[in-house]
Amino acid sequence: MESREHPPVVAENLGKKYSRGWALRDCTLQIPAGRVVALVGPNGAGKSTLMGMITGLLRPTAGRITVFGDAPNGRGMHPAVAFLTQAKPLYPQFTVTETLRYGRTANPGWDQAYAEQLVERAQVPFAAKVGTLSGGQRTRVALALALGKRPRLLMLDEPLADLDPLARETVLQTLLHECRVQGITVLLSSHVLAELEGVCDHLVLLASGQVRLAGDVGRLLHQHGAPGMRLSQLVLAHMRSEGVAA
Amino acid sequence: MTWIVWRQQRPVFITLAGGLVVAAAAILLLRAGMLADLKAGNLVDCVEQKLAVCRGKEAREFQKSWYDLIHIAQIAVVVVPALVGVFIGAPLFAREFEQGTHVLAFTQSVSRTRWMATKFVVAGLPALLFVAALQLLVRSWVNAAGKLGPLVGGPFYFTTFDAQGVSPVVYTLFAYTLGVFVGALSRRTLVAITLTLGVFVASRIAVAVRRDEFGEPVRELSPDLTDPYAGVGDGQVMDTGFLDAKGAVVADPGSAQAPCVPSTRVEVSVEDRTACWQQHGLAQRYRDVLQVDQATTIHLLEAAIFAGLAAVFVLGLVWAVRRQS
Predict the structure, then answer these.
(1) Same domain, B84 and B208
(2) Does A94 touch chain B (CB under 8 A)?
C-alpha cells in the first residue's frame, strides 16, 4: 500500500486561530510510524486543537497537514485513524453489543472478534446499556470501538482524565500492549507527565500554541537533560525555562 | 448504516407506528358510526348534493354531532407536518452536535456525507409515510360526509385544501428538511425547534395568502347588486365589486352608495336600494372566483415552491455537516 510509506502525521507551519486568538502557531512536526508519542503541555497549549486538525474536525487557519499522505477534510476522517476523546462520546441508549455493532456497521475493516475479546477482557457485560456503565467500563468500550476498526494511528486525547488511579493503570497497560502487538502508532495527549513516563518513546511538548520540544525521548534526554534525569523533570525544567505557567 | 439510524430513532418509529394504529382505529370507528347516523337520518343522498331536504332537522342534528369532529381530523393532517419538522427533523442532527456524538460519527470510516444521507432518509421516510397514511384515512372520512361535512366549503376551504392532494406530504418534506438543516446549522436542539416552527408557520402563511396568484380567477357577473354571494358555487371568491353600465369597474362604489343611505332610521327594501344604486351608476356586481378545477394546479404550484425550498435545505444540510469548524 502506497500510503504505508507516508508518515502518520506531517505538519508544516500549521496554525489555528479561533476568535479569541491563535491556539496553535507555526507548528512543524512529524509523528513517526510505530512509535508511542506523548503530546504534553499545560491546559490550553493546543493539544486538542492539533488532534482536531488531524481528524479533520477542525480546519487549519495556516500551514499544511497530512495524515498518511492525505490532507484531512470535512468529508470524514482518514480510515486508518482512530480517535478517542476525553468525553468518550458513545450513545448512552445503546447496549455494549449494539455499540460494537455500530462499529461494525460504520467501519468496513472492522474486527468483531477482536473487539469482543477486548470487551470480555475488561469484564464489561455485553447486555448493559452504555449509559449505565462506570467511567472505566465506558473507556474500555470506547477503546474496543477505536481498536476494533484496526487503525494504524490511534489518537487519544486525555483518555485517562476521568479514571481512578487503578483504572488508569489497567487501561494504559491494555492500550499499550495492544498497540505494541499490532504495531499501531499512538498519539497520546496528557497533562499528567508521570503516567506517560516509561510508556512513550517520542515526545512532543506544546506550550502556548507552539512546539517547544519534539523528538525521540532517549535523544532528548541525552541532549537536554542531566544524567539520570527523568522525562517529567526534563519537561518541567523546559517549561520553566520558557516561562510557561503550567 | 441503516441499522444505526434505525436503532437511534427506534422510540420515534414506535411512536409513529403506535400513533398510526390509534389514529386508524379511531377514524375507522368514527366513520362507521357516522355512516350509521347518515342512514338513520335518511341523509345518504345529502352527501352527494345540496338538496332542500338536507336543510332539515336531521341534517342539522347530523352536522352538530359530526362536522367539528371531521374538521378536527382535517386540522390534524394540517398540523402533523409541523410536528414532524419540530420533533423529528430539528433534533436529528442538533442532538448529535449537542451531545458530542457527532465526533463519534465523524471519526468512523464511513464518510460524513453517507452518515448524513442515511440518517436523513431512514429517519424521514417513515414520517412521510405516516403523514400520507393519515391523510388517506382522514380523506376517506371527509368524503363519506360529503356535502354535510367540510367539503360543503369547496376544495379551497382552508383545512380541506391543506389536507388534500400532494400538500400534506410536501409540507412534511418542507418541515423535515427545514428542521434537519436548521439543526445541523445551529447545533442546538432548542434553537432548531424554535426556528423550525417559526419559519414553517411563516412560510406556510406567506404562500397561502398568495394562493389567488397561482390560479387565474374567473370573473362571474351577477345582476343581484346587494348580495355579493348570491348563487356562488364551490370556488373561492377572491374579490368582489361593481361594474358600471359600460362594463368598467367602478373604482369607488362607496360614493355611489352613499346617497342611498337614508338620513333617518328607516328600513330600505332590497328593491329600492338596488334601484338607487343603479341610478348612481352601479349596473352589475362581479366577483373573481378561483374555479374548482384549478385546485389541482394550485396544489402542484404550491408543492413546487415547497419542494424547491426543501431541495435548498438539503444542499444547506450537506454544507453544514461537511463544514469544518
Answers:
(1) yes
(2) yes
